[in-house]
Each structure stands twice: as structure tokens, then as C-alpha cells.
């Protein structure tokens, strides 16, 4: 088995990986590059709802702001979101017959600025597009398949890039745009520099995937409970999960919330907010309001600073914390996953994090476009241009073992690999008796 046979085998599967992944990589890169600047974009695009003129007067009580929101949009208030800074409006989530509505209120004078369906801002739309939730539950499985194949794309790409004595096309680009070698070198050099980011984004994006992410979430949270050992509370636990009532961190999505055990007169929203302020929750926290006698006030905040992530549940009668949990209370796996997700979203290192991810996303788009141009210039007329089969089929053995290992770790990826393998075999059978496509 010569080197050319192994090279052809790797090249063939690199082509298939690109064929499957590149369209999704372009979509994910564009939407991801936008979403890392979500706060800036939303505050600009929805400035009439989200931003107010800073005033010297004190802000109105939370209950007064909720009353103003309900006057404008009748229904049941289910969540109060504290302004993240002095120039931010207060967001009240109201449950109506038509669905949940986000009502924006000026915290200084109680003027209702406007309302829109909950989670319908520009950046929430971009987020649902990025995660493929926009297209339904099953479409989310594509994320897992695309992530797994992108890792395969990088691994095979590194092998194809490896110099093997050549000088040009390693870290420099030869020729001019009219020549295929220019696009080959541009693709290879861009890929070798951006490969790390592709793998990092693929791995840290896996927690949102349909099958792998869900199973790891359950395993990381321990029997679907959601709280690490030592943080569980000795009060009744409801069947409701934290993700069902408020935006939360990935690690706590499966967390089952406690129940209030007292009776009598419940504390007011003003009292609950005062308690959350006294406990030192980071500005911009959300308060889910109790909707039934055993309900509670749940305050949660997930700012860019991981150490400030926190969720606090208050008994609605006594106002005492039933649970107070922060990033420091997560287990080792939970901390690692949250750090990866935080960095993936451009939050961990501030503006530098955002700029690096923007550059990486732009490079990924360039990588995909150069691949298309290179393929178009190489492919024979009237053919798909699939790289040739190796003369010695044993060249596939090691590659298939690697693919099988990846398939065991990521089930959906493994299933897609089998489908692609069957399609490749069918393609070869259809072309039997015809000349093999040249290099």
C-alpha cells in the first residue's frame, strides 16, 4: 500500500465531509458571528424598547412597573427582569391568551415603551437560526452531525495539508486567483490556521445537540436532578425544571425547582427583589413569579463573568432562600462545560473573545468558499468530481476504524457515517465499468 493510496482515501472522505458540512458551517459562522455581539446589536436595533434616558430620580418599585405592564398588556405577570444598567428598561413577561409577551417599561416613570412576543428580538431570532430550533426539534440533530463531521474535516484536512517536502502552499499562497493552485493554497493555509477554532466550536457546541447533548446533560446533572451533591435542599421538590420557567445555564437546564413550604400571606415582589439585592445578585437578574401556592420566587442571572452566575429560590411566604447556587457549586464537568459554552458565546474574555470569534467565523466562511471554487476548477465537465478510489482498498481500513470510534462517541454522526459509506458504495457500483475520475 503506497502513500498515494492512503492520501486518496483520506482525500475522498475529506471531500465527503466538506460536501455535507460546508453549507452548515457557512450558516453557523454567519449567525454565530452576529450572536456574539447580541447585546450591542439588540440594544441598537431595539433601542426604542430596551434603552431609556438616565434620570436622577429613583426607579419605581417593581410592583408598580408590573402594574403598568399589565395595564398595557392584560394577562398574568410571570417574570420580572431587573435593568442591567442605569440606561436599560425593565422587561416584564406577561402570559396572555395569545402567548407570552415581553413588555418594556421605563423604570423611572413607569411609561410602557412597547411590547412584543417573548424571545422575538432580532438576536433571539438569530439564536434560533444558529441552533436550528427555528426549523423544529429534528433539525437540531443536524448540529450534532455537522459538528462531528467538521472534526473529521479538520483531521483529514491536516493530513492533506502536511508538507511532505513541499515549500509553497504550507503557510503561503502561490499563484493568482485565476489558477487552481491559488485556491488550493488559500484553502489549505486558511484551514490550518482556523482548524483549532473549528474543533473548539464544534465540541463546545455539542451540548446543544439533540441526542449527545441531551444525554450528557442528564449524566452531568446526576439522574436528571440538576444540582451537584451537597447543594440539594431538604424541602419538597417539584417536577418542574428550571429551564421551563427562566433562561438558565446549560448545566442547570434539568434542575428541578423546590417548592414553598409555608402558608399564609405571601411576600410581595418588592420584598423578593429587595432580598435578591441584599443577597448580591448581579444586575440584570430575572425573577420568576410564583403561579401557585407551592410556587416560589426564582432569581437567576448568567452574566459574562462565570463567577457571577447564580440562581436563588426564595420561599414565597417566608422570603428565606431555599437554595442559593453559583458557578462555584458546579461539579468539575459542569464547570468545564459552562466555561466552554461561555467562551463559545464570546463572553469569557470580553471584547477580545468576540473579536477572535468574529475573525474565526470570517475565516471559516472563506475556507468554505475557497473549497467550492477549488472544486469547481478541478472537477471534470459533467461529473461530481469525487476524488478517486485508492488502488489498494486496504487504505480504507485505518480510516474506517477512526470513523467507527467517532461514531460510537457521537451516535448520530456514526449513523450518518454509515449512510455516507453506503452511498459511496452505491456510487462506485453505478460507475463500475466507466473510467475512474482523474486527479
Describe this structure in words.
The chain is α+β, with helices and mostly antiparallel strands. It contains 13 helices and 10 strands. The chain has helices spanning 3-35, 38-45, 47-50, 62-72, 122-130, 141-161, 180-205, 212-221, 269-279, 332-344, 350-378, 395-409, 411-430, and strands spanning 76-81, 90-96, 99-105, 112-117, 237-241, 256-258, 286-288, 296-301, 310-315, 321-326. The protein is elongated and about 80 Å long. The protein starts with a helix and ends in a 9-residue tail after the last helix. The model is unreliable at 435-439 (pLDDT under 50).
Q: Which short descriptors sum up this protein?
A:
single chain; 439 residues; alpha+beta; 8-stranded antiparallel beta sheet; two-stranded antiparallel sheet; 10 strands; elongated; disordered C terminus; transmembrane helix; PepSY-associated TM helix domain-containing protein; transmembrane; membrane; PepSY
Amino acid at each position: 500500500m503506497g502513500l498515494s493510496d492512503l492520501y486518496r482515501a483520506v482525500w475522498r472522505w475529506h471531500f465527503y465531509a466538506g460536501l455535507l458540512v460546508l453549507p452548515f458551517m457557512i450558516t453557523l459562522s454567519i449567525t454565530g458571528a452576529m450572536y456574539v455581539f447580541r447585546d450591542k446589536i439588540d440594544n441598537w436595533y431595539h433601542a426604542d424598547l430596551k434603552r431609556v434616558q438616565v434620570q436622577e430620580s429613583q426607579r419605581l418599585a417593581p410592583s408598580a412597573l408590573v402594574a403598568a405592564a399589565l395595564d398595557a398588556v392584560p394577562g398574568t405577570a410571570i417574570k420580572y427582569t431587573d435593568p442591567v444598567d442605569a440606561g436599560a428598561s425593565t422587561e416584564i413577561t406577561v402570559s396572555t391568551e395569545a402567548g407570552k409577551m415581553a413588555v418594556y417599561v421605563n423604570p423611572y416613570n413607569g411609561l410602557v415603551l412597547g411590547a412584543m412576543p417573548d424571545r422575538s428580538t432580532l438576536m433571539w431570532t438569530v439564536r434560533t437560526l444558529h441552533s436550528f430550533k427555528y426549523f423544529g426539534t429534528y433539525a437540531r440533530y443536524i448540529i450534532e452531525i455537522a459538528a462531528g463531521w467538521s472534526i473529521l474535516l479538520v483531521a483529514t484536512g491536516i493530513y492533506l495539508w502536511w508538507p511532505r517536502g513541499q515549500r509553497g502552499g504550507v503557510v503561503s499562497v502561490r499563484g493568482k486567483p485565476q489558477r487552481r493552485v491559488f485556491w488550493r493554497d488559500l484553502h489549505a493555509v486558511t484551514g490550518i490556521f482556523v482548524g483549532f477554532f473549528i474543533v473548539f466550536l464544534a465540541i463546545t457546541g455539542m451540548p446543544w445537540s439533540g441526542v449527545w447533548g441531551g444525554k450528557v446533560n442528564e449524566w452531568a446533572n446526576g439522574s436528571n436532578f440538576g444540582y451537584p451533591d451537597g447543594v440539594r435542599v431538604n424541602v419538597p421538590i417539584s417536577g418542574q425544571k428550571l429551564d421551563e420557567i427562566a433562561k438558565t445555564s446549560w448545566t442547570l437546564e434539568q434542575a428541578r425547582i423546590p417548592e414553598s413550604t409555608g402558608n399564609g400571606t405571601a411576600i410581595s415582589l418588592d420584598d423578593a427583589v429587595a432580598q435578591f439585592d441584599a443577597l448580591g445578585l448581579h444586575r440584570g437578574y430575572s425573577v420568576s413569579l410564583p403561579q401557585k401556592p407551592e410556587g416560589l420566587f426564582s432569581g437567576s442571572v448568567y452574566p459574562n463573568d462565570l463567577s457571577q452566575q447564580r440562581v436563588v429560590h426564595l420561599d414565597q411566604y417566608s422570603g428565606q432562600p431555599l437554595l442559593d447556587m453559583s458557578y462555584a457549586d458546579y461539579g468539575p464537568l459542569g464547570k468545564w462545560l459552562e466555561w466552554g459554552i461561555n467562551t463559545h458565546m464570546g463572553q469569557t474574555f470580553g471584547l477580545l473573545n468576540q473579536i477572535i470569534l468574529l475573525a474565526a467565523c470570517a475565516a471559516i466562511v472563506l475556507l468554505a468558499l475557497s473549497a467550492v471554487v477549488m472544486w469547481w476548477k478541478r472537477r471534470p465537465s459533467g461529473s461530481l468530481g469525487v476524488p478517486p478510489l485508492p488502488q489498494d482498498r486496504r487504505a480504507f481500513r485505518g480510516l474506517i476504524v477512526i470513523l467507527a470510534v467517532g461514531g460510537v462517541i457521537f451516535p448520530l454522526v456514526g449513523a450518518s457515517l454509515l449512510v455516507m459509506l453506503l452511498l459511496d458504495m452505491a456510487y462506485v457500483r453505478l460507475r463500475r465499468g466507466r473510467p475512474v475520475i482523474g486527479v
